[in-house]
Amino acid sequence: MLIPSIDLLGGQIVQLVQGEKLRLAFDDFEYWIEKFSKYKLVQLIDLDAAKRQGDNSALVEQMAKRLPVQVGGGIHTVERAKQVLGAGARRVIIGSALFTSEGQVNTEFAAELADAIGAERVVAGIDTKNGRIAVKGWKAQVELTPDEAMPLLEEYAAAFLYTHVDGEGMMGGFPMDVAARLRKLTKRQLIVAGGIRTQQEVDELDALGADAVVGMAVYTNQMQV
Asked: So what's the pLDDT on residue 170?
C-alpha cells in the first residue's frame, strides 16, 4: 500500500532532505487534500512540533477532518494523543516519547498510552540514522537499534513506522534487505519510509509485507498519484 506523506513546517507543506535541508514548499493545501483523498491512509507530520519549534495544530485539525490521517510530530503525552485523535486522526505516531533520556525503551509510557487510547490507535515511530534510533526531530540519537527496540514495543502498538533517515528525501531507493529484516521482527503492520521513488519499489515492499510512505517522489512528479 502506498501512503502519501504530508509534512508541515512553518504553515506550509514541505519536503526536506534528511530532515534538514528544505527542498520544496507548497501552500496550495486544497490541491493536495483533493489529490490524496482517494487513499485509505495519509501520513501527516507536524515538523515544527517534532523539532520543538512551535506547531501547526490548526492545520493538523483541518486536515484530520478531511483525510484519513495518522498524525505524528511532538506527541509526547497521553493528553496530546487524545487531542489529535479527538480532532479526527485515525492513529497517532509516537517516536521520541517511546525512548528515555538514558536510551532505553520507555515501556511504561507505551503501556500507559496503549491503555488510554487503545494499542490499535498507536503507531510506534522507529526513525533510524546510521543504524541507531534518532529522536527529537532527528537531532539526537539513542544507543538502540530497531532490532532491540521493536520487540519491546510489540504489544503496545498496531504498527511500526520505520523511517530510513539516511535516505529521506533523496530518492535513492529504500534498502529492501532492511525491509525484509524488519518484517521478521514484528507481526504488526510494518510501514517504511525514506528514499522510495518508484511504483516498482512500492510493489516490492508490498510483496515483502511492508507498506510504503512516499513524499518527495510524489511532490516532484517522479511518481503519479
From this structure: 67
